[in-house]
Structures are given as C-alpha cells and as structure tokens.
C-alpha cells in the first residue's frame, strides 16, 4: 500500500466514523424495523427474543438513550470492516481489500443501516465474516478456518436462524456446487451449525424470527433500491463489471462465481451481506481499469458520464424539493449536499479520462462520503423537526398509565415510531389492523391512526401534520 492510499484511507475512515456517530442521539426512532424492535422490547414482562432482550436492557440501563442504543450497530459494522481487512487480504490483495472497504463505507446502504438500533448490522458482520472464512477454508483446508467458520455460522443463527441457515447453505452450494467439488461440499456441512442454532433457539423458546425487526427483511423493495442508489457514484465500474464477469461465469471464473454466489445467497436469505457484493465488484474493476489491456474502459466512462448527467438533474429535483418542503433552509442544504456530490463525481470523471488513479478512485469515494456527512450534519436536523411533530402526539395522552391505547397499523405497513414511545409509557398498548377492528374494541380508549376513523370522528383530539397521524379519544358514547 502506497503512502498516499494509506493517508487517504485513514481520512475516509474518519469521515465514515463521524457519519456513523453523528445525530444518533438526536434522531428519533425510525418507522418500521427500528420501531418494531423497540415495540417488542417494551412488551409487558419483557421479551424473550435475543435482539429485543438486548435492546430492552440497553433502554432500561440508559433511560432510553438512543445514541447508546444505536452504538452496538456501529460497533458491529466497524468490526465487520476490521475482520474483512484482516481475513480478505490474502484472498483479494491489499489494494482491492482496502478499496472495497472504502467503497462500501461511503455508499448509502451500510452506513445508514448502522445508524439504526436493529440487528441488521449484527447479521451483516457475521454473514460477511462467515463468507470470507468459508473462502479461507476452501483455499487452506488444512488450517482451522473450518471451525472458525462454524462458530460464526452458529452465532449468526442465534440472531436470525432461518436467514443464516439459507444464506450459508446456498453460499456453499453456489461456490462448491461445480463438477468435481461435490465431495468437498458434502464434507463441509455448512448447514450444520446453523441448524444447531435453530435447535438451540427452539428449545430455549427464542425461535421467533420476525422480518419486521430487520430493515432488509421488512423493506425489501426499498432496501434493494437503497442498495442501487448507494453505489451510484460508481455506476461506470458496476457497468464494466457486469460486462466483464457475465461471460466468465459460465467458464467458472473464480471471481465471477464468488460475486454471483454472494449476490444470490444474499437475495435468497434476505441477508444484509448483499450490500457488500457491489463493493467487491467495484474494487476489482477499479484495479483493472488502469491495466494496459483492460478492454472495458468505454463502459466505465459511459456509466460515469451518464451518472454525472443524472446527478445534475437529480440535484435540480433536490433543490425544488428542499424549497417546497423546507423553504429557504431546504434550498441551502440541498445546494450544499448536491454541490459536494456533483463536484467530486466530476473529479472522478476527469480522472477516468485522464488516467489519473487518485482522481478516478478518490472522486466517487469522496462524493459518497461528503454527501452522507453533509446530509446528517445539515439536512437531517431540518427533517427531524418535522418528525418531532408526530411524536408530540404523546403529550396529548393522559397521565394514567393504565389507560387503553391502540395504534392502527395494517398487516403490511411499517409500524409508526410513535407506537414504541407510547408503549414505554402505556405497557398495555397494542395495535389494530383496520377500522373494522377498531369498531369492535371496548371503550373508552385512545387511538392513534394514519387515517380518519369514522366511528370516532366526533372525538378527534390532536393530529400531526408531519405524518398525518390522528389521535382519537373514543368514549363510551359519541
């Protein structure tokens, strides 16, 4: 590793760490996975599910300190990066390993995933390390990598039993399922430690895997869209990578098989480790781009230029959206974020055409790093002020902790964050799916709903303009 790459990597690492930590105490709970896990952790008598038990313990010990609740996710992500750096260097080389970590750390997927108090980062770390340990065992079967692999698979199975069972089983099948490797695949028994974890969870009464506790499970379309958008600064390298490895997959090229296996296993298991697969693809293409015989430079340049054009029009949308929702302050924040993102992307394009490695690689990496950091420092505080309006509904609830409170949430809807806060104050809080269920509830009760409830329309109590939430006090008679 050159001194320039070393200093650049340290600088980007500092930016990533600041991004991971900033605003974690200021940002309220997020709707969906984070709110669902917080809701479960506040269940009367406590929860018996491992992630919810841990979150409830942290909540009680820190009196609801969100920064400390989200800190384990940040630590797990940093541990995953450190583990990948240590284990993957002999496999991919030092430059590719470092570049992959820089690309993943500045994408919009992984850093934002680690800023939520959900088990996604825990599962990501164990699945990623398990993936590398599997490769080390295949390359060095005489070493102890197999037993380390088993330990990681078992640990991940305690967090998400079925997801881990599918992920590592399919990973082994896709990597070792080629002709002549059937015996090695059978001797590995990659599914065995995950199945043992399922059995442990079953007999201990903790085998309850609910997708609404994981962002990648609950928000699959949104999560995959975030995955694609997070790597937009590297669009050219993704395009060339697909063109490069698609034909090689049929020929059994090792790198093509690994990328395909990681992507398919991640999709089938709904594993957050899928977020790292494009970073590995991009890192290999960044190294190959500067080789004298690289045949796909035009793909990289075309993708980078198209991204630059798309980013320009996306910036205009961001400007108008900022003005519409947040007035003048929104425009200033949008200009700051879009300016940093577009200018660094432009530097990357110049580097590609001028064959300047530092510009071509550093430009898109800094585009993602600066955009993320500026969003959380300057943009998110404006959004949080609107989200607080939703949580202010709790101030209109009674002081009596024994009051009956319901939250309306459809079967396929993300649980609103206000529900978790309410349940902390009113342990008997539960949710109802629709208005038909509401009409059958025993009155009196309080109801928080996204929609207008006709049967309680005359008992409207408060609302939130941010998320159109309404609070009703439904009495015995209207």
Explain this structure:
The protein has helices spanning 3-21, 33-41, 50-62, 66-92, 94-105, 109-113, 120-139, 145-159, 161-176, 182-188, 191-204, 215-218, 220-230, 235-250, 254-269, 277-289, 297-354, 357-391, 417-425, 435-439; strands at 405-408, 430-432, 445-449, 460-464, 469-474. Helix 7 (120-139) runs parallel beside helix 9 and helix 14 (235-250) runs antiparallel to helix 17 (297-354). A five-stranded mixed β-sheet has the order 2-1-3-5-4. It folds into two domains: 3-301, no CATH class; 397-474. It is mostly helical and 478 residues long. The mean pLDDT is 81.
Task: Give the secondary structure arrangement, pairings included.
Layout: H1 3-21, H2 33-41, H3 50-62, H4 66-92, H5 94-105, H6 109-113, H7 120-139, H8 145-159, H9 161-176, H10 182-188, H11 191-204, H12 215-218, H13 220-230, H14 235-250, H15 254-269, H16 277-289, H17 297-354, H18 357-391, E1 405-408, H19 417-425, E2 430-432, H20 435-439, E3 445-449, E4 460-464, E5 469-474
Parallel strand pairs: 1-2, 1-3
Antiparallel strand pairs: 3-5, 4-5
Helix pairs in contact: 1-5, 1-18, 2-3, 2-19, 4-5, 4-7, 5-16, 7-8, 7-9, 8-9, 8-11, 9-11, 9-15, 14-15, 14-16, 14-17, 17-18
Overview in brief:
The chain is mainly alpha-helical.
Decide which structural class fits the backbone: mainly alpha
The total of helices stands at: 20
Largest sheet: 5 strands, mixed
Which range does the strand content fall in? under 5%
Work out the radius of gyration.
24 Å
> Average pLDDT value?
81
Return the string of H and E elements: HHHHHHHHHHHHHHHHHHEHEHEEE
The helicity comes to 55-70%
Low-confidence stretches: none
Total DSSP E strands: 5
The N- and C-terminal alpha carbons lie at a distance of 74 Å
Give, in spatial order, the strands making up the sheet with the most strands: 2-1-3-5-4
Number of domains: 2
